[in-house]
Amino acid sequence: MGMSRRDFVRAGALSGVGLAAAAGAAIRDRVRSDTPDPSGQATVRLLAVLDNIEPKADEDVLLRMQRELKRAMAKPVEQRRWVMVIDLRKCVGCHACTIGCVAENKLPPGVVYRPVVIEEFGEFPNVRLRFTPRPCMQCDEPPCVPVCPVRATWKRPDGIVAIDYDQCIGCRYCLTACPYGARTSDFGLFYTSDAASGAPDGDATPTLGPDAAWEHQPSHEYAKHWEREEHQSPVGNARKCHFCLHRLEKGQLPMCTSTCIGRSTYFGDASDPDSLVSELIAKHDVQTLLPHHGTKPRVFYIV
Amino acid sequence: MSQANSQPLDPKKVWYWGRYGPFARAPWEKQLWIVWALLMALGLVGVVQRVVQGHLPAGYGSYVPWGLWIAIYFHAVGIATGSFLVGALGYLFGWRGLGTPSMLRTVIVLAVAVMLPAFLAVLFDLGHMERAGFILTSPNFSSMMAFNAWMYQAFVGVGVVCWFLSFRKDSGWLKPLLALDVLLATIIPSQSGAFLGVVHAKPFWNSALFPVVFLASAVTSGAAMLLVVRTLLGPEAFRWAVPDARAEHDDAIDRLRIVVSASLLLYLGLEWAEFSVNLWSPGRDEAAVHLILFGPYWWVFWIVHLALGAALPLLLLLFSRRRGAWAIASLLVAVTFLATRLNVLLPGQVVPELQGLESAFHHPRLSYTYHATAMEYLVGCFLVAVGMAVYFLARRFGAVIAFRLSQDGPGRSQ
CB within 10 Å: which end of chain B, N or C, has fewer? Predict the structure, then answer.
């Protein structure tokens, strides 16, 4: 027994070809940066937003941000650079952003895009609370993107990390790869699965239970129509904050930004030097979460 | 001497349970049938639950996304590749008891039979089982998952080709392809370690040691499984192929005993390296290691892994002269090494990198604790039953082909 010289040569050739092919495939996919998104003029949006309201110097920051949003959407997608700035000095931990996001995106039980972390420091009487909303960081070096085995998630030209609900196989590798815990999996839960169906209303639609109409209202994430039926996307998928991309397309700010009672969340185009977010980042000592992971988040915190 | 050598053989009866064929009825077959029936009955209950109710009966969530099934997947891949690595090297180097084509086919069948349940474990874990094929049609090779999936296909594919080539005495491609599969069998368990090692978000996983640890684990559990299978087959299984089957059988067991013992000691050394770095790093308190050693599941490490899976088997392997004791020791190793996979997979996930998420938004699926549910255990039973069934059917299929080819004259390898 043992291997002859011919066997060694053949084995070496087979192994060499195989290893070269494997290395080439891995390197190719690691360096490629193409995305399935359209770009260029096709992505320009000329939105009729706030056309009848004259800009004022002291206008609400939400109006200012919406005008800047309109200005950004008039550029091709690759020229926009969405960032979010959250002023922790103003956040009171009301969780309106959390619930507003749940309502906007029709999030089911077990899925959350923007929880608010509550931390307590010190001992009585020197006690302090800090509230930290945690949306998806839309990282410039997203660890969740290279681990996806089927290319279901990618970084868009405007900086948002998107998920293709029709491509995601639900392996949950991206969930483990995110140090911020920003991704959650839709396991197919409904709020009133275990509730009694209750008396039907006028059109015989139950108000509670698995057949309740409100439980099956579609969401419009990524500007598409998603109905949560069993085993059908987005059930089984990874899901996360996408800066309300579907609202941006219509000239509306993300829900968390709009609904924040303390005006502590700011959103805009960082490639616009005149934007509010650019001013805030330049003026304040902004920080990011877990910078040692090298993810380069696009959500900045004023502490 | 088997019945095959003492009376005329009826070809029709060869296929029926292989009773009169080249492979005589294996010892322990009746007991294994009972175990299989029980596992399959329990397993089908779990599978029906999984198919009908999806992930609702499972215990994993979004903060601990991977549980028992992924641990089974790692463990099964380790056994498959480790057993193949040892067995194929034994064939290539002509080790007594491992150097025959029939034993090589047994090794290949064992590897495939254990690999298929690993695939099923991942399939059941997916959110969209029907899209599993996307890994093959639109892979992203920067992902270790896609890389591994393609490696598995290559490993199984080359193994199947080697299985067919092993029937030829003069195949010039058998050994080169076998060497390629040996390379794959070395890379694959290392990649399993890298699968976790590349996750920067989990400091416990993010170590260059894991690819080595997983390879050592694969060789240990794989060699142990090979010893168990060789013992269960007994010398009768190869009596028609070699003149001195008993001596060959004993030699194979003796050699495998050395491999299991040495690899187990090596694994324990690597495990010590892994833990000692974490425990002795000044200023760095590795919460995951503390959880493994002193947490609520401390007994999994100290009792299941160290006592039952390492200390007792080493005592039996090193100090007992009875081959039956070695088989029991190897069975303990092969089974309990699942605990080592669990002790890598779960502690890495239950220690959050960003504190406070669990209390920020409450839901059972958004928790940093995990307990496997009954459905998960039942599906685990199904996976074991599938492996046993594949092994049994592939062995019978091979026995039929081997018998028919043995009647075709020279040029056909036994």
Answer: N
**Interchain contact B52–A (C-beta under 8 A):** no
3-state class percentages of chain A: helix first, strand second, coil last, to nearest 5: 30, 15, 55
Distance CA(B71)–CA(B121), nearest Å, equals: 9
Which candidate in A147, A229, A289, A301 is best for mutational testing of the B interface (most B CBs within 10 A)? A147
Tokens (6 digits) for B281 = 């790093």
What's the pTM value of the predicted model, to 2 decimals?
Answer: 0.91
Those of residues 115-134 in A touching chain B at CB distance below 8 A are 115-119, 132, 134
The amino acid at residue B215 is L
CB A268 within 8 A of CB A69: yes
Query: Which residues are A120's β-sheet partners?
Result: A129
Q: What is the CATH number of domain B20-262+373-406?
A: 1.20.1630
Q: Is A36 helix (H, G, I), strand (E, B) or coil?
A: coil
**Per-residue buried b or exposed e for A18-53, using 16+ beta carbons within 10 Å of the residue's own CB:** beeebeebbeebeeeeeeeeeeeeebebebeebeee
pLDDT tens track for B89-113: 999 998 888 888 888 999 999 999 9
> What's the mean pLDDT when you consider all of chain A?
92
Structure tokens at A224: 């598409």
Question: Closest Cα partner for B70 from A172, A43, A64, A21?
Answer: A172
- Collapsing DSSP to helix, strand or coil, B381 comes out as helix
Cβ of residue A76 closer than 8 Å to a chain B Cβ: no
Do the bridges between strand A265-269 and strand A82-87 make them parallel or antiparallel, or are there none, so unpaired? antiparallel
Q: What is the pLDDT of residues A278-300, one digit of tens each?
A: 999 999 999 999 999 999 999 99
Taking only the tens place, the pLDDT of each residue in A15-42 is 999 999 999 998 988 888 778 888 899 9
Token representation of residue B115: 């690999």
Sketch out chain A's domains with CATH numbers.
65-302 (3.30.70.20)
**Distance between CA atoms of residues B222 and B78, nearest Å:** 7
Contact with chain A for residue B93, Cβ under 8 A: yes
**Interchain CB contact of B138 with A (< 8 Å):** yes
Cis peptide before A125 (omega within 30 of 0): yes
Identity of the residue numbered B13? K
Interior angle at CA B396, CA B31 and CA B104, nearest 5? 100
* A220 close to A255: Cβ distance less than 8 angstroms: no
- Taking the Cβ of residue B48 and every Cβ of chain A, the question of whether any pair is shorter than 8 Å is answered with no
Q: Token digits for B297?
A: 């599941």
